[in-house]
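Notes taken during the Thursday session

The instructor put the following on the board and asked us to keep it in front of us for the whole hour. The protein is phosphoglucomutase (alpha-D-glucose-1,6-bisphosphate-dependent). We were told not to look anything up and to reason only from what is written here. First, the residues (543 in total):
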Amino acid sequence: MEIIKVQTQPFNGQKPGTSGLRKQVSIFQQVHYLENFVQSIFNALEDFQGKTLVLGGDGRYHNRTAIQVILKMAAANGFGRVLVGQGGILSTPAASAVIRKNKAFGGIILSASHNPGGPDGDFGIKYNISNGGPAPEKVTDAIYQITQDISVYQSIETADIDLDRLGSVKMGDMPVEVIDSVTDYAELMETLFDFERIKQLFNSGAFSMAFDAMHAVTGPYAKAILEDRLGAGNIVLNGEPLEDFGKGHPDPNLTYAKELVDILYGTNAPQFGAASDGDGDRNMILGQGCFVTPSDSLAVMAANAHLVPGYSQGIAGVARSMPTSAAVDRVAKQLGIACYETPTGWKFFGNLLDAGKVTLCGEESFGTGSDHVREKDGLWAVLFWLNILAVRQQSVQQILKQHWAQYGRNFYSRHDYENVDAAQAKTLMDELEAQFDSLPGKTISGARITFADNFSYTDPVDNSRSEKQGIRIGFADGSRIVFRLSGTGTAGATLRIYLERFEANTDLHDLDAQEALADLIQIADELAKVKHYTKREQPSVIT
Ligand code: VG1
Ligand code: CO
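Then, after some discussion, the predicted C-alpha cells were revealed:
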C-alpha cells in the first residue's frame, strides 16, 4: 500500500460548533477542505494505530463521496480497520452504539443533523471518542488548532469500495467491514424496553401511531423496529432516506414536521405520533391533538422510568442543558436524585454519564437520551414513550395532565430568529450583557428581575470550564428568559430566546403556552430590542 502525502493549505473557519463542523455543501466540496479537517482530527488523536474506527452518516448529499475519502485517509493514517454502515448510513445514536459495542477507538459521523441537505444544503462532520460520545471541547479545540496550520494530509490511491454490499473488503491493506446499519442498534433497544408489552399494545386494536422519518436516516430504523419487530403496521411516513430529505427541513418540530402535526390534530388521529431529525438523534412526541414539549418529555420519562425494564432499577441522576425547562428538576427532587445543569450540546453530558452520575439527560431542542449510548437518541425516546403508554394504558394527554397536576407545569417555549444579520445579533447580545449590572432589582412590566448573567459551567468530573454559554435573566417568581446564538447554523446568525414560567395552579394548566408566556415574550423584546436588531416582527420558528 503506497501512502501519498498531499500538500495543502489551511482553510479559515474549520471550527467545530455545538455539534461538529457544519458548512454548506459547496464549502465542503472545495479541493482538500474535507481532507484537511479529517487529517486534523487524526493528528489530534494519539495511539490509534491498528485500532478500529466507526464511520457513517445520515445519508445526505455528499455522504458517499466523503466516506470514500475518509476510508482512504484512515488506511493511510494507520487505522486497523473501519466499520462502515451499509450505504454509508448510520444514525448518530446507532454510530454511538456501534462504537461502544465494538470497543472502537472512535468514530466519524457525517451529518448536519436538522439542517437541510442536497447540493444547496449543508454537510457536517464530527468526531466521537471511544465512549461513543461527541469529542469534548479540549479535543475539538485541538482539532481546530491543527486546521489552522495544516500543510499535508495522507491518503492512498485506490478504487472506491462498494458501500452497499455487506461484508469485509480491503481499502489498501486496511480491512473495511460494511455492517448492517440497524442490527446492533435494534438489539440494544430490545434489551431496554418491554417489546412484548408494546407488541400487545399495537395488537390491541385500540392503539395506533404515526412516525415521520422526514426522508432522513431513521426510516430504515423505524421500519425495522416499529413495523417489523413490534408489529405496529404500516406507520412510517417519509421512510425512504433521500439525499436532499425530499427538499424538506428534517427538524422534528411543530413548524417543520407539519405533515405529522396535521395528522395528530386532524380527525381520526392516531393515539401517538413521533418524528425524528436528519441524523436520528432528535424526537418529537405528540398525542391526539396534543404536543409534549421536549422539556416535559424528559420530566415524564424520569418520573416513569421505573415502568421501563432498562431503568426499573432506578435512575442515578438526571441532567439537562441550561435552557431546558426545570420540569425535570422537580421530578429529580421528588425522587431524591441529583439534577445537573450543563451548557447546550450533548458533549457536556458525556462525563456525567461515564461517571455514573446521571442515567437520563435531555435538551429542549428535541433531544433525550440515556446512558445506553453517548448521543441523544430519537427512536429510543419513542420506544420509551411506547413502553410507558403500554404499561399505563392512558393517553399521552392524560399522562401529561397528571404529570402537571403532580409537579406543576413549567410553561415553556423557544422562539428562533433564523438567518438574521450576524453583526446585529452580536450587538443585541453585547448590549444585553452591558445591562447586567443595572438589571437586578429592576421591574419591567410588573416583573422584578433578580439576576442577569452569562452562564458558565465547571464540569464536575474533570473540572474543565466553559464560559459564555448563554445569557440568563431571572425573575422574582422563578421565571426565566435565556438568550443564545446558535452554534449549528451555517448562514448569518440564529438567535434563540427561551422562555419559561412555572405555574402551580392546576386550573391554569390548560392555557396555551404562548398566552401563558405573553408577558415574558414582551419583556424579552423590550430588554433586547429583538424586533429592532433582527428586523423581524415574528420569530421564524416557535416551539
Ligand atoms: C442546537 C440545539 C442543541 C443541540 C444541537 C445539536 O444547537 O440547540 O441543543 O445539541 O443543535 O443537535 P444550537 O447551537 O444551534 O442551539 V443536532 O440534532 O443538530 O446534532
Ligand atoms: Co440531530
